[in-house]
Amino acid sequence: MNHPYLIMFDYDGVIVDSLDVFARAFLASCKVCGYDGIRTPEQFKALLDGNFYESLRQYGLSKKLINAILGERFTREVQEHMHEITLFDGIKNILKSLANRHVLIVVTSNVTHVVQQLFDREEIDCFQSVMGAEVEKSKIKKIQKAIARYHQRPAFYVGDTRGDMLEGRQAGAATIAVTWGWHTEEKLREAEPDYVVHSPAELLRLFEKPINSA
């Protein structure tokens, strides 16, 4: 490997197993806010076919309603069930190994302080920064910002949804799809990711040799 890389990670579905908690909190918040257009976990997962917030807007939700659904009640619900959210097996050690040589950043639609709360609990300190929804709703813009900051490093985005792959490519990063997250491998391959990995160990092996970036 000639050069260290910039490796940007999605959080939910890549680092932590949080689908059940996230979906329950979202659907409950929709109900409290009087919105019944999204009722099932399957509908919720379909929002990740593209940008999460743009998908909500395509359902006809206003910015005000989106902010209400994803506001304090939703965040509180997720935090109350934080004990149910766990790291995927092996991911912690893989992240530590990658951080020894590369710059790691989290780019997520989640909220930074919620992500940091779990990192503190699990004693994960290998990320240079966490770029959450309160920084910018668009993952594309956040990825571009990180690429501009570390422009000398080949850039990769690691995600678990079709939307992650589309946004990562549009932002100018090489895309790596992980199959242990929220979308199936079949769904991920619809977006033609540059790489597909099936375990954290396989992700580490990918970066143990020179690879092509976007």
Q: What would the CATH topology of the largest domain be?
A: Rossmann fold
Class from secondary-structure proportions: alpha/beta
Question: How many strands appear in the DSSP assignment?
Answer: 8
Shape: globular
Which architecture name of the largest domain does CATH use?
Answer: 3-Layer(aba) Sandwich
CATH homologous superfamily grouping of the largest domain: HAD superfamily/HAD-like
Helix content: 40-55%
Distance between the termini: 16 Å
3D architecture notes:
- The protein is α/β, with parallel strands linked by helices and 214 residues long.
- Strands 5-4-1-6-7-8 form a six-stranded parallel sheet, with helices on both faces. Strands 2-3 form a two-stranded antiparallel ribbon.
- Strand 6, helix 9 and strand 7 form a beta-alpha-beta unit.
- The relative contact order is 0.18.
List the helices and strands and how they pair.
Elements: E1 6-9, E2 16-17, H1 19-32, H2 41-46, H3 52-58, H4 63-69, H5 72-80, E3 86-87, H6 91-99, E4 103-107, H7 112-122, E5 129-131, H8 139-149, E6 155-159, H9 162-171, E7 174-178, H10 185-189, E8 195-197, H11 200-206
Parallel strand pairs: 1-4, 1-6, 4-5, 6-7, 7-8
Antiparallel strand pairs: 2-3
Helix pairs in contact: 1-5, 6-11, 8-9
